[in-house]
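WARN no homologs supplied; continuing
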Amino acid sequence: MKTKISREKFTTVRDALSAVMAALVCVATFIIKIPNPPTHGYINFGDLMIFVSALTFGAIVGGYAGGVGSALADMISGYTNFALYTLIIKGVEGMISGLISNKKSLSRDVLAVIVAGFEMIAGYFLVEWYLYGWGAALTEVPGNISQIGVGGIVGIPLAMIIRRRLPEALKYRTRSSE
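OK structure emitted
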């Protein structure tokens, strides 16, 4: 039995999901932080929850959770110099992965992670190159690649499980209704 949900109620549900998923992204970022002294950045598990958010609930929730959750983690942990860059880079990462995924195809989920991951790696590389130079920026690339790899390997199956178990009223809306 399909449950209809009004646009106003869906907006409220989407906003609540965005806040909860942003909090989960923030917490996942704190689970393991491996510092990278040349760039003053760190490797973390936040991308895993960004992908779960985006692949499960779409571009709006994924973008909000990725940007706000990751930037909040930067501010709380003393990396305020990266917070604005993180808000943009991780927000776009969540939006891209939510837009590419069609919620029915494993290959689209994998493509979503690869394209969004490339955006994240390139975004941080450019910011770190600007702030710290070419050499320091290069030291961050392997860690960012591993972040995306772990995020995809764990995040895609987790998103698939969650999507199967969600009530119909909470399932992903098409891009035209977001």
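The radius of gyration is 16 Å.
OK
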